[in-house]
Write a structure and sequence with these properties.
It is an enzyme of class 1 (oxidoreductase). This is Short-chain type dehydrogenase/reductase. This protein is α/β, with parallel strands linked by helices. It contains 10 helices and 8 strands. It has an 8-stranded mixed beta sheet, with helices on both faces.
Length: about 300
């Protein structure tokens, strides 16, 4: 089966390096016209440099593809609209967005400053909303459009020192599901990918203990280009029946993540009191409690 993005226009945010770059190159190779969006900021979000986005554009053009650079920020409504308008102005349409842009400002929760929380949430969660919302105005008039959002196991499973990042990434999952429900009538799909790959976003991981060093060593063997094929597929018409899902890609593994559903219930005639909750309800449900685990505790095997 041949999967093609011919005649489609795709926006990839955070596309100057890492996973975003690989996705931009892959959708272009599949025939898409690409808006390569990246402000060229540091990992923590400071500064601006147009060269990363332009280098990817030149790579795509050298391979015979079509691409334009965008250096507008996704973290503000007006500039995010300019990113989408760039696709419309240059290509006449927008068929898919890949919301990949992100920053990190890791810190233990009790030391995290409000500005550190807000900055990360604004880029990841607000940025995903702004780009998707702006694109939706055009997508609802088209047929078989697709939104792809990068989430993380930091949000799905939990991680240390990343309350801001985790909150944003789990928020993206809920946002994606809401988009999928609201936009299904217009044949606009919305799915999430939780990528495992060595990139700028993972390069800040601590290596203070042997366990942390081993985890980083495993990640360094996971190539960013392993994420791109799933993004290409989800952007294509071949994925027309895939909507509202959460996938993970880890080297040669692909996951389908579960979504929240009730797993245990208890009933008491007349309702519950504080005392009966303590004596009956919590002991009955305790065996089904989700353990206090982090992402590396849950996904702890070597995929290589």
């Amino acid at each position: 089966m041949t999967v093609s993005l011919e005649q489609k226009a795709v926006i990839v945010t955070g596309a100057g390096t890492g996973i975003g770059r690989e996705v931009a190159l892959a959708v272009a190779a599949a025939g898409a016209k690409v808006v390569v969006n990246d402000i060229g900021a540091s990992l923590s979000g400071e500064g601006q440099d147009a060269s990363p986005a332009q280098r990817v554009v030149e790579e795509i053009r050298a391979a015979g593809g079509t691409a334009v650079a965008s250096t507008d920020s996704v973290s503000e409504w007006d500039s995010a609209r300019r990113v989408v308008q760039c696709a419309v102005d240059n290509f006449g349409r927008v068929d898919s967005v890949v919301n990949n842009a992100g920053i990190l400002r890791d810190r233990m929760f009790h030391k995290m400053e409000p500005e550190e929380f807000e900055a990360v949430v604004r880029v990841h969660l607000f940025g995903t909303f702004y780009i998707s919302r702006a694109a939706s105005e055009f997508m609802r008039e088209q047929s078989s459009s697709s939104m792809i959002h990068m989430t993380s196991t930091a949000g799905l499973l939990g991680n240390v020192g990343q309350a801001n990042y985790s909150a944003a990434k789990l928020g993206i999952v809920a946002l994606s599901k809401s988009i999928a429900v609201d936009m299904a009538r217009y044949n606009v799909r919305s799915n999430c990918i939780a990528p495992f790959a060595w990139s700028r976003m993972t390069s800040s991981m601590p290596t203070d203990t042997p366990e942390q060093q081993a985890r980083v060593a495993r990640l360094q063997r996971m190539e960013a280009n392993k994420i791109a094929p799933l993004a290409v597929y989800l952007a294509s018409d071949a994925a027309s029946a895939v909507n509202g899902q959460i996938f993970g890609v880890r080297a040669n593994e692909i996951y389908l993540f579960s979504q929240n559903r009730p797993i245990r219930s208890v009933h008491r005639d007349g309702g519950w009191t504080v005392e009966s909750l303590a004596e009956t309800a919590m002991p009955a449900m305790k065996g089904s409690f989700v353990p206090l685990e982090r992402s590396p505790d849950v996904i702890c095997w070597d995929p290589i």
